[in-house]
Amino acid sequence: MASVETAAEHERILREIESTDTNCIGPTLRSVYDGQEHGLFMDKLEGRIRNHDREIEKMCNHHFQGFVDSITELLKVRGEAQKLKSQVTDTNRRVQDDGKELLTAMDELRQCRLQQRNIATTIDKLAHCLPMLEMYSKLQEQMRAKRYYPALRTLEQLELSCLPQAGQYRFCGIMAENIPLLRTQIRDVSMSDLKDFLESIRKHSEKIGETAMKQAQVQRSLDSALSHQQSAGSGRRVRKEVGQSTELTGQGGSPQSEQDSGILDVEDEEEDEVPGAHELVDFSPVYRCLHIYTVLGARDTFESYYRKQRRKQARLVLQPHSNMHETLDGYRRYFNQIVGFFVVEDHVLHTTQGLVNRAYVEELWELALSKTTAALRTHSSYCTDPDLLLDLKNLIVLFADTLQGYGFPVNQLFDMLLEIRDQYGEILLKKWNGTFRQILDQDNYSPISVVSEEEYRCILGQFPFHDPELDKMAFPKKVPFSGFVPKVYMQLKEFIYACLKFSEDLHLSSSEIDDMIRKSTNLLLTRTLSNCLQYAIKKKNVSLAELVQIIINTTHLEQSCHFLEGFISNITNVPSDAINATKLYGTSTFKDARHAAEEEIYTSLNQKIDQFLQLADYDWMATQPKGQPSDYLSDLITFLCSTFSVFTNLPGKVIEHATMSGKVAQTACMSACKHLSTSMLQLLLEADVRQVSMGALHQFNVDVKECERFARAGPVPGFQGDTLLLAFIDLRQLLDLFTQWDWSTYLADYGRPTCKYLRVNPHTALALLEKMKDTSRKNNVFAQFRKNERDKQKLIDTVIKQLRNLISAQQS
C-alpha cells in the first residue's frame, strides 16, 4: 500500500512540475527532498524524461522531410536574394547620387523654415511685449512730466495687465521689481507737492482772505443798494458762488489740473476786477495727492496727515501778533489770514469727498471763534482811540459777514461786538470829557454878541433857540447864553452820531439801537457833562459873573433836551413817546448843575464874607464906641452892593429853579445876610474873646445897624417889606437886650410867642453875660467899694443865676 501511495504522489509531483511555471517549482522539489523516497523519485523522473525524448524523436521523424524541403527552397531563395541585394544596392547608389543636391536644398529649406518659425515666434513675443514696453515708456514720460496720478494709473495697468501677458522675461522681472519703488516715489513726490501747497497757502492766506473780504464788501454794497431801492433791509448775506472745479466722483476720477502750482499770480489783475478767492488757489496738488493715496489704499493716512497739518496751521493763524492793537492794519492782516484759511477749507470741503467733513470744519471754526474772540477782547482793551475802535468794529462786521457767507455761524462775534460797544462808549465818554472841559475852559462866560443876521442865523442853526423879542431887536445884539451852549449842544449831537455809527450793521432792531444811543447819551449827560460842569463850577477863581452865566447856560441847555429827544427819534425812526423808549436825563443833569452853581454862588459869597470878617479888629475892652461902622464892614457892604448889582442881569424866568422858591439873587442876598449875621454872632461869642466891655458892645451894635441899613436899602429888588432884615433879627434882639439891659422883660416873657426877645437863646445870653461879668470884675477892682458898681455886679450875678435856672428848667 505504501508503495502505491508513493507512486501516486510521485506521479502528482511530476504532473505538477510539467504544468507549473518554473518560478514556483521550488516548494514542489522541496517536498521531494524532505521525503525518504528521493531515489525512487529520481528514477521515476528519469523514466518520464525518456518518455518525452521518445515522443520528441517521433515528432521530428514525422516532420523531417518537410524540413529538408524548406532548407532546399531556402537555398534557392538565397541566390535570388543576393541578386536582389545587388540590384537594390546599385539602385540606392544611383538614388544617392541623384539626391545629394536635393538633400542640400532640403537642408537649406529646413534651415530657412526654422528661421521663419523663430522669426514668427519672436514677432509674436514682441507683439505681446510691445504694449508693455509702450506702457513702460509712457510711464517714464509721465514721471518726467510729473504727471503722477496718470503715471500711477499706468503703473497699475502695467502691473495687472501688461506684465502677466508679456511672459517670464528678465526685463519683465526687473520692471516688476521697480513697480513698488515707483509707487513709493510717486507717493513721496505727491506728498512733497502737498507740503509745498500747504506751505504756499499758509503764506498766501492773507491774500486769499483779503480777496474774500473784498468780495463780501462788494456784495454788501450791492445788498445795501438793493435794500435801499426796495426800502426793506433784510440784513442777510448771500453766499458767494464757488467756482467751477472738478469734484471727486469716485476713486477712478482724475484731478482738475496736473500743473504743480499752489497760488496763482494775480498781481497783474486790474484793481476793479476782484477775482474769486478760490480762483487764487490751484488745488490740483491736493486733488492729485488725494487720488494717488486713494489708489495706493492709504487715503486714511492722507486725510489724517492733511487734517493734522491744517490744525497746526490754524493754531499759527489764530495766534495774533503782540502789537496787533497798535494799528488797524494789524487787525486786518489777522482777519485776512483767518478768512483765507477757512475759505480754503470750505472749498476743499465742497470739492472733495471726505477729505474734510463738516464736523471737522465746525470743530476748527469753534476753535477759531474762541481764540479770535479772546484775542479781540484782549487787544481791543488796549485801544483808547474811538476812531480806531470804530474802524475795528467795521472790520469785525466785514469779517463776520464774509465767513457767514461761507456758512459759518458768527453770533459770538456780534455778541462780542456788543461788549466792545460798551468799551467804545467809555472811550467816547473820555474823549468827550476832554472836549467838554476844553470848551468850558476856553469859554469867556459872556453873552454872545451878534453883529449880523448871518451870524445870528448861524447860532440858531447850531442851537435850538427862539426869542421873538430878541428877533425884533436891531443889530448888534446879544443872545443870553455864552459860546459853550451851542458848542456843547453840537458835541452832544456828534456823540449821538458816533454812537449810531457803531450800532450800524450789528443786526439790531431800531428799538435796540435807539435804546443803546439813549443809554449812552444819558451816561454822557449824567456822568461826563455833569462832572465837567461841576469842575467848571468848583474850580478856583471862578467869578460870580461866570457862575451866573453858567446858570443861564444850563437853563437853555435844559430847555433844549426835548430837541435832543426828537433828534434821536429822527435818526433811529423810534418815536420818543414809545412805550419802551428810554428817556434822556438831561433835564435833571442841567438842573443839578444849575443848583450846584447856585450853591457855589452862595458858598463863594459866604467865603468872601468870611475873608472880610477875618479883617475885623474889635477892641473888646473899649470904654466908648467909635460912633461909626468899622472899616472892614464898610468894605464888606460895598462889595456886597457891587456883587448884587451883577444879579440884575439875570432875567426872572432864567433864575427860577424847581427845588427852592424865589430867585437866585434874592436867595443869594438872603443867604449872605444870614451868614453875615451868624458869623458876627460867632465873632462875638468865640472862645478867644474872653471879655467884652459895654463900649465894645455898643461899637458892635453900630456895625449891626450898618448891616440893617444895607438890608433895608434893598440891594436886590423883590423882597417884600423888611424881609431881608429878618436875617439880622437874632443879633438885633440880643444887642437890644444888652444895650437896654431889659432883663426883667426877657426873663418874665421868656417862652411866650409875644416875647420881645423871642430870638435870644438863653445859652447865648449867658455866655455873653459871663464875658461882661469878667470884664466888670477886672476893670473895677477898686470900684467894687462903690455902691452902684456893687449893685450892678449883684444884678449881673442875679441875672446869671436866673439864666442858669432857666436853662436847667428848659433842659428838664
TrEMBL record:
<protein>
    <recommendedName>
        <fullName>Exocyst complex component</fullName>
    </recommendedName>
</protein>
<dbReference type="Pfam" id="PF20651">
    <property type="entry name" value="EXOC6_Sec15_N"/>
</dbReference>
<dbReference type="InterPro" id="IPR007225">
    <property type="entry name" value="EXOC6/Sec15"/>
</dbReference>
<keyword id="KW-0268">Exocytosis</keyword>
<dbReference type="GO" id="GO:0006886">
    <property type="term" value="P:intracellular protein transport"/>
</dbReference>
<feature type="compositionally biased region" description="Acidic residues">
    <location>
        <begin position="265"/>
        <end position="274"/>
    </location>
</feature>
<dbReference type="GO" id="GO:0000145">
    <property type="term" value="C:exocyst"/>
</dbReference>
<feature type="region of interest" description="Disordered">
    <location>
        <begin position="221"/>
        <end position="277"/>
    </location>
</feature>
<dbReference type="GO" id="GO:0006893">
    <property type="term" value="P:Golgi to plasma membrane transport"/>
</dbReference>
<dbReference type="InterPro" id="IPR042044">
    <property type="entry name" value="EXOC6PINT-1/Sec15/Tip20_C_dom2"/>
</dbReference>
<dbReference type="InterPro" id="IPR048359">
    <property type="entry name" value="EXOC6_Sec15_N"/>
</dbReference>
<keyword id="KW-0813">Transport</keyword>
<comment type="similarity">
    <text>Belongs to the SEC15 family.</text>
</comment>
<dbReference type="Pfam" id="PF04091">
    <property type="entry name" value="Sec15_C"/>
</dbReference>
<dbReference type="InterPro" id="IPR046361">
    <property type="entry name" value="EXOC6/Sec15_C"/>
</dbReference>
<feature type="domain" description="Exocyst complex component EXOC6/Sec15 N-terminal">
    <location>
        <begin position="44"/>
        <end position="213"/>
    </location>
</feature>
<feature type="compositionally biased region" description="Polar residues">
    <location>
        <begin position="221"/>
        <end position="233"/>
    </location>
</feature>
<comment type="function">
    <text>Component of the exocyst complex involved in the docking of exocytic vesicles with fusion sites on the plasma membrane.</text>
</comment>
<dbReference type="GO" id="GO:0005886">
    <property type="term" value="C:plasma membrane"/>
</dbReference>
<feature type="domain" description="Exocyst complex subunit EXOC6/Sec15 C-terminal">
    <location>
        <begin position="412"/>
        <end position="771"/>
    </location>
</feature>
<feature type="compositionally biased region" description="Polar residues">
    <location>
        <begin position="243"/>
        <end position="260"/>
    </location>
</feature>
<dbReference type="GO" id="GO:0090522">
    <property type="term" value="P:vesicle tethering involved in exocytosis"/>
</dbReference>
<dbReference type="InterPro" id="IPR042045">
    <property type="entry name" value="EXOC6/Sec15_C_dom1"/>
</dbReference>
